[in-house]
Amino acid sequence: MIGDRIKRKRLAMGLSLQDLADRLGQLDIKLSRAALSNYETNKSSPNAKNLWGIAKILNASMDYFVATEERSIVLQGFRKKTDTPASRVNQLKALIEDEIEKRMELDAVLGEEEPKELPSQKRVKSPAEAEEIAREVRSSWGLGDQPLASATSTLEAKGWYVLEVPYNDDFDGMAGFIESNHRPFAVSRTGIAVDRVRLNLLHEAGHAYVVGEDDKASERAAFRFAAAFLLPRERAFEDLGQKRSSVDMEELLFAKKRYGLSMQAIAYRLKDLEIISESYMALLFRYFTSMGMRVEEPGSRELMFEEKPMAFASKVHRAFAEGLITEDDAVRLLPGFRESRSSPDRLSSSEIKRILSLSGEERNRILEAAAAAAEGVYSDPDVNIAGSADDIIEYS
Prior knowledge:
Blueprint lengths: L1 H11 L4 H9 L7 H8 L7 H10 L4 H5 L6 E8 L5 H25 L11 E2 L3 H14 L10 H7 L3 E5 L5 E8 L5 E6 L4 H13 L3 E2 L3 H16 L2 H8 L8 H11 L3 H10 L5 H13 L20 H11 L5 H7 L3 H5 L7 H8 L3 H20 L17
Parallel strand pairs: 2-6, 3-5
Antiparallel strand pairs: 1-4, 4-5
């Protein structure tokens, strides 16, 4: 209903009823908190002018508020600080619901099929069982035991919605599924190290596959799932040995760079696999603490793993290029869409169509001019340093 959608959008933007009333006042729309509350509880409905103002403030289309289909989500994991206020929790849930609805709307426009490989949650009695489930999932996805180039793209390729929310240290991650079709989603936050993003995402994904006897057991199982997914047992044994009395810091750093997992998580992983003892792991963590590594580890900023969700943005550009959505639709779905298309080096769709409509002779003339320009660039000694392009040798 209209009121439910007004409330969701307002919460997603982190606005109070008074905030919304104040901003509407700047548009010369005088509405009290009580009037807005009546809208949100569906005790009354806004007229066209008031709904227009609300839509403008909440960066939504008028159609958004009259949509009849609701997308309910079910949470399987939600990691937050114990003192996180209910208002913040409600804001995060509203934000996720809103983002998921955008993705489902776009998939419907593109005619995208829903994923066939939906997660099946299993109850486990120990973290070791969670490890075996991670091995099974990795195998079914054809990943072998090699390092994972991107946790984000791996999940997206399997039909997961992967989202990120603006940095806030009261929230770490969230996972769940859409009630209507059981499509899974995983959420992490921005502004943290790549190795933490990877662990966050696969920890949240782990909740879709494993559940323990209680909340603490579920968290341990999800962590074990994520660690096993990022650093498979066979690779740990091969790279670090099956039994160690001590481990060099450089070894942990090398493993971090290779698997995109923090040194602390790797140390914990080695303890889980009984490569090192629990007492030695405790010694390592005392060292991490004394060196300030619990706050920021060495090597995190140099990690080369790409963990930025790209599937949704790519689909928005695709739908726009194919004429399935308008530019206003694209901006509503993907804030910043116009800026991404305004690069001076980018050819517009209309320019591409104009070039393709030219005769073969005219197109060849354009290509010859472009080739001549490129030849001039590569002959520039500042570009082709020491004639390096001439030194390329083809081996057969």
